[in-house]
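INTERNAL TRANSFER SHEET
From: sequence group
To: structure group
Subject: Fe2OG dioxygenase domain-containing protein

Please process the attached sequence and return the structure record in the designated field. Keep the field labels unchanged so the import script can parse them.
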Amino acid sequence: MAALPTAAFKPVQEVLEGEGVVPGRYIKHKDEHTQEDGDVLLPMMDCTIIDLALLSSSSPQELAKLHSALNSWGCVQVVNHGMTSSFLDEVRGVIEQFFALPTNEKQKYFRKEESGSSDAPLEGYANDDVYQQKTLNWNDNMHLLLFPLAKCKFELWPQKPSNFRTILENYTTKSKMLFDSLLRAMARSLKLDENNFFELWGNDEEDTILGRFNFYPRCPASNRVDGLKPHGDGSAITIVLQDNKVEGLQILKDGKWFRVPIIPEAILLFIGDQMEIASNGIFKSPAHKVVVSPYNDRVSLAMFCIPNPEKEIGPLKELINEDRPQLYKRLKDYGKIFFQYYPENDADRLIHTVKINY
Ligand SMILES: O=C(O)CCC(=O)C(=O)O
Ligand SMILES: [Fe+2]
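Return from structure group:
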């Protein structure tokens, strides 16, 4: 990967300063204008809300709801997860405070090439401009490895606001428990041994959680830019803490885009490509994207469960049978395959590259 051009770096947040014109590099190609002007009128998805307490007590109805939603949408929102709304607001608050800092303060945590390697992610603050995408996302972001603690590069964690680290460590510890409960419940909903998905993620000290802190500045030409282009997540599973006031996340189902509702007390779960592979296609990794508001900035925090790249991932043998032949190849380091294609504009379903064609 080319060296990251620190000197030329400009946060999207500052792009409109001066003339206030959105540069062409951010304007979507004509053929990407699928629903220009119409985004606000898109239907809301029929989002399943899962009660974690019921799930953990193995309520058959709740497990069936989970199975059905992950099989159709690949996404649910989870409530009763043990984190209070005021705590979730604190997490959102420190993210907002970080992105509100002056650029020279944020640049102390700038993403450097040396911080990444084939098996460790690039960490720090940046935006997609540094990867020279064809059309850029209207998004500034920060990537931090959040788990396990032994792998955290705390020198890249913001010192301001001063409670950033405490809040994020606390949120990560609670999220790890949430991930574990969800993975167990997902296995149970498929009538598998409840520890089966720990083979995929969670039982290995090289399994990690990568956090992506997103900031989508408001944009007057909001319907001509993408906050985040359509993509499926390359993780095993992802949880997203959405902004509690500003909508923007959309999900694709049967070729149509739907808005994802804001449920302030909920945490959103997306199936990632590696879980779609492990579940032999029963759980779907949905394409999703983010649209930008003309009036308000939006933040979110996506936490990706990334399996040890040395581990071979493939459809579980219990989920392969005559009616459902093996749909995906067995592979290692899906992240590497994923990031070879990721900067492309049309890379919304990279999982197709590892499909077995009968
Ligand atoms: O901003 C959001 O709500 C979703 C972010 C997302 O999809 C990602 O970071 O992969
Ligand atoms: Fe995503």
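Handover comment: The chain has a mean pLDDT of 90. The first helix runs from residue 52 to 56.
Transfer complete.
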